[in-house]
Design goal:
It comes from Ceriporiopsis subvermispora (strain B). This is Glutaredoxin domain-containing protein. One of its GO terms (biological process) is cellular response to oxidative stress. InterPro entries: GLR_AS, Glutaredoxin, Glutaredoxin_euk/vir, Glutaredoxin_subgr, Thioredoxin-like_sf. With 147 residues, the protein is an alpha+beta fold. It has two domains: 33 residues, no CATH class; 105 residues, 3-Layer(aba) Sandwich (Glutaredoxin), CATH 3.40.30.10. Helix content is 57%, strand content 12%. The protein contains seven helices and four strands, in the order αααβαβαββαα. It has a four-stranded mixed beta sheet, with helices on both faces. The longest helix is centred in the middle third of the chain and has 19 residues. The relative contact order is 0.13.
């Protein structure tokens, strides 16, 4: 209420119109929100996705960010499980997670790749299914996994 009173007092020749009061009030709200030191909801979600991805990559030998219905993801997961059955593989099905879109956005920022599968082996970004198959056919996949 005091904001409105001060606004009213600032007009010397005529009272403020309802539109000018709303404009001032809206402008003050925007300024207050912009000057807040807390991260926005979007920033909080991306930071949570970053924490999840970075921790998964650092704590697991093989990490696959996947979608359960994706044929390329199925092919990559099948290759990894058949070649390295004793190597634990962390699989994140992004379509089954509430934060899947946020994770995919962070993966784009981190790797330049938004598509799935998005594969990490020994903390290195490998790429997708075709890149994984190429490493295998070149005989480099086992070395990368360390198996």
């Amino acid at each position: 209420m005091s904001v409105l009173f001060n606004l009213f007092r600032s007009f010397t020749s005529s009272p403020p119109s309802p539109v000018s009061i709303l404009r001032h009030s809206f402008s003050s709200s925007i300024t207050a929100a912009a000057s807040s030191s807390r991260p926005s909801l979007y920033q909080q979600r991306i930071m949570a996705a970053k924490d999840l991805v970075d921790s998964a990559v650092s704590q697991n030998k093989i990490v696959v960010f996947s979608k359960s219905y994706c044929p390329y993801c199925k092919r990559a997961k099948a290759l990894l499980s058949s070649k390295f059955p004793s190597v634990p593989t962390a699989v994140y099905e992004l379509d089954e997670r509430e934060d899947g879109s946020d994770i995919q956005s962070y993966l784009l920022e981190k790797t330049g790749q938004r598509t799935v599968p998005n594969i990490f082996i020994s903390q290195q970004h490998v790429g997708g299914s075709d890149a994984l198959a190429a490493l295998d056919s070149e005989g480099k996949l086992a070395d990368l996994v360390g198996a």
